[in-house]
């Protein structure tokens, strides 16, 4: 089975042959981010699929935030381009948790830790964060934990 980085390279070649500018541009940007991360630090190293997923998640989040900023400034064409790039990146990410699935994970973490009240938010987040990694944004999980513990 090909690694995620290999899959990105294969898809880049296919996008270039198909003359799909959005996919080509987005995948090139993702591979550049991965390469930059590999050579940063004291010594160059190959990234695992989990580390690459984190990079792709970060890049997808940047695209969503940029799209919101462009839409707020009335630049709908640029916002649409950012959303199109985010959609390309989303194809390489794990399926996002639904609100019900996230609520179930949060409920289990609260029961597991025995936390109650706002003071237990950090305790619950330590349990929830690794379980939702890559499948839900941390801010979304934190908001749900906060709502459950302060309600």
Question: What does this entry look like structurally?
Answer:
- The chain is mainly α and 151 residues long.
- It has 2 domains: 4-90, Hypothetical Protein Yqey, Chain: A, domain1; 99-150, Arc Repressor Mutant, subunit A, CATH 1.10.10.
- The chain contains 7 helices and no strands.
- It has helices at residues 4-17, 21-39, 49-72, 76-90, 99-113, 121-132, 138-150.
- It is globular, with a radius of gyration of 18 Å.
- The termini are far apart.
Short key terms for the protein model shown above:
7 helices; mainly alpha; Arc Repressor Mutant, subunit A; 151 residues; 2 domains; Hypothetical Protein Yqey, Chain: A, domain1
Quick description:
The protein is mainly alpha-helical and 151 residues long.
Architecture blueprint of SSEs:
Layout: H1 4-17, H2 21-39, H3 49-72, H4 76-90, H5 99-113, H6 121-132, H7 138-150
Question: What is the averaged pLDDT score?
Answer: 90
Beta-strand residue percentage: under 5%
Cα separation of the termini: 46 Å
Number of DSSP helices?
A: 7
The proportion of residues forming helix, as a percent range, comes to: over 70%
C-alpha geometry = globular
Relevant CATH superfamily of the largest domain: Uncharacterised protein YqeY/AIM41, N-terminal domain
What's the count of strands? 0
Run of helices and strands = HHHHHHH
CATH classification class of the largest domain: Mainly Alpha
Number of domains: 2
Structural class by helix and strand composition: mainly alpha
Spans with pLDDT under 50 lasting ≥5 residues? none
Give me the CATH fold name of the largest domain: Hypothetical Protein Yqey, Chain: A, domain1
